[in-house]
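Final report, section 2: Outcomes. Of the targets proposed, DUF1048 domain-containing protein is the one most frequently requested by collaborating groups, and we therefore present its record in full.
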Amino acid sequence: MAAKWIETFTGSLEQKKQYKLSSARLKALPRPYAETAAALQRYFLYQGGVTDGQILVDMLSDLADLLEAAAAEQTPIRDIVSDDPVEFAEDFTKAYGGERWIDKERNRLIESINRAESESERQEP
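The predicted structure is given below as tokens.
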């Protein structure tokens, strides 16, 4: 019962365990893959801005799967992320959908402009 109460404020404890497991898997990769994983994970947290913890957990788990397989096959990093790692990272996060932090700000911007437009129309004679 206490765990449910705590999760209300802190989020899912199971998701935290899964996140830590995926992060540990990424850190355990051989050097070039682990460095790539760390860079991508950091970028995902900034760029992705997901609001659903399960989506982030799924993303990191899938990234670990991808990089573990690449490391096992000794696939060059650039064959994974291409010449444009930013595009790779953004496409990777887009594949997971879900609401993102920026969505709230986009909606706020649209509502503000709509409100300003409405006020402007009411003031015109």
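The helical segments are 2-10, 13-27, 31-48, 53-73, 77-81, 85-94, 101-123.
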